Amino acid sequence: MCNLETEGTKYGCGHYQVTRKVRKIDCNSRYCTHSIRHSPDCGDCHCERYLGPDVKETITFTTPQYCPSCQYWFKGPGSQRVR
Ligand SMILES: [Zn+2]
Ligand SMILES: [Zn+2]
Ligand SMILES: [Zn+2]
Question: Ion ligand 1 — residues with CB under 5 Å?
Answer without folding.
Answer: 1-2, 27, 32, 34-35
